[in-house]
């Protein structure tokens, strides 16, 4: 009975020990699985945008943008699956080596234990043990023989426990190997499907690019209009900033070139401390055009410039303020539709291409408060929010300030 209790206790400690040893691996693989799940959600969302953009079956920059996004996500998915496969292969190789070592140890222990049990069986008669002790030449020898019998009994018990311990470890490793092999089969199937999807999407992207290249004149004309609209908005923003500086000179109890009250100064400092933590101005979407200069997606040797970022989102998407502040201006501009400007101390956020505005000049807004609805271009079948951030006269890269998706 005591031996069975000790076996159960050993089993408990072995399982706990093995689970602890696997914790590092479990954390790594858990992180990869979470990334894969998020990637799958992003791909599903992008697919919905793609279906919306493809309604008219015409090639457009919007369609190309969504396709490029989906391809990037699909490549990330494949990379993620490959990392999981590498982890799984490593686990399988390590487990096989451990199983081989445990099998050898188990076989050796089993042979030793069988011999010990056989010998113990022969010596189990109490009369034989007494005779063994009484046959001693003196008390010292009798004591040594008594200790020997005790040690032999203890040695046999420990060998039995070690045999059980090794068998439990071996069984757990064999179960782990079976599970790892099943995981690998699932991952290989996922990898094959993801690779097929990627190939199909790249072919579609290639077709859209070919069609767009035939529309070079239209693309160049649209680009010129866009540049003109962007310049008008920049001019308007700088005009607003200059006006704020001019009015600041007339105010009292303010600080800085732009006339900040103590409350506005504190608000700006708070804003500046939240870099990389701001919520997105749309609940869903992705950055379809980055901040600064970059190559045009179709036109060769042509570079485009963006004073902010473009966020492609779903139709009827809500636009929201990223931080508390005051609505200082609401503009209506050709090509950019409605524009909302919110002041946050010495910082300013600009939300362009809104179809409808839900706030008015002078309103105090909070973080994530709805301020409008993003405009949907029916011709291009795309919904894009143009978002900018400024600190006084300096343009900021919004990608560095928003939460990483």
UniProtKB/TrEMBL annotation:
SUPFAM superfamilies: Duplicated hybrid motif. It holds the Pfam family Peptidase_M23. GO terms for molecular function: metalloendopeptidase activity. Residues 306-398 form the M23ase beta-sheet core domain. Keywords: Coiled coil, Signal. Residues 64-119, 209-243 form a coiled coil. PANTHER family: L-ALA--D-GLU ENDOPEPTIDASE, PEPTIDASE-RELATED. This is Peptidase M23. It comes from Ancylomarina salipaludis. The lineage of its organism: Bacteria, Pseudomonadati, Bacteroidota, Bacteroidia, Marinilabiliales.
């Amino acid at each position: 009975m005591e031996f069975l209790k000790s076996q159960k206790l050993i089993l408990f400690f072995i399982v706990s020990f093995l689970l602890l040893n696997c914790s590092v691996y479990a954390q790594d693989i858990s992180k990869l699985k979470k990334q894969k799940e998020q990637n799958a959600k992003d791909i599903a969302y992008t697919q919905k945008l793609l279906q919306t953009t493809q309604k008219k079956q015409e090639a457009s920059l919007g369609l190309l943008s969504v396709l490029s996004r989906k391809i990037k996500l699909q490549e990330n998915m494949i990379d993620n699956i490959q990392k999981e496969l590498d982890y799984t292969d490593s686990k399988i190789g390590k487990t096989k080596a451990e199983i081989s070592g445990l099998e050898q140890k188990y076989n050796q222990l089993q042979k030793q234990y069988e011999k010990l049990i056989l010998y113990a069986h022969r010596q189990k008669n109490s009369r034989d043990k007494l005779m063994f002790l009484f046959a001693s030449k003196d008390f010292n020898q009798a004591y040594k023989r008594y200790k020997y019998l005790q040690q032999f009994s203890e040695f046999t018990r420990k060998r039995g426990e070690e045999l059980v311990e090794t068998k439990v470890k071996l069984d757990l490793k064999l179960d782990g190997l079976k599970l790892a092999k099943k995981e690998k089969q699932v991952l290989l199937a996922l990898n094959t499907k993801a690779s097929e999807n990627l190939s199909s999407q790249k072919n579609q992207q290639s077709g859209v690019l070919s069609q767009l290249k035939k529309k070079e004149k239209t693309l160049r004309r649209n680009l010129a209009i866009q540049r003109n609209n962007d310049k008008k908005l920049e001019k308007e923003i700088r005009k607003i900033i200059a006006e704020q500086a001019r009015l600041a000179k007339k105010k009292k109890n303010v600080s800085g070139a732009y006339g900040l009250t103590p409350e506005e100064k504190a608000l700006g400092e708070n804003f500046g401390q939240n870099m990389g933590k701001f919520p997105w101005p749309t609940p869903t979407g992705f950055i379809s055009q980055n901040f600064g200069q970059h190559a045009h997606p179709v036109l060769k040797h042509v570079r485009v410039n963006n004073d902010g970022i473009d966020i492609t989102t779903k139709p009827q998407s809500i636009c929201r303020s990223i931080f508390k502040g005051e609505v200082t201006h609401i503009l209506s501009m050709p090509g950019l539709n409605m524009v909302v400007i919110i002041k946050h101390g010495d910082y300013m956020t600009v939300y362009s291409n809104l179809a409808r505005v839900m706030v008015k000049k002078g309103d105090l807004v909070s973080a994530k408060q709805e301020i409008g609805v993003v405009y949907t271009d029916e011709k291009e079948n795309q919904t894009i929010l143009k978002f900018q951030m400024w600190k006084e006269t300096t343009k900021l890269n919004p990608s560095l300030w928003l939460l990483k998706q």
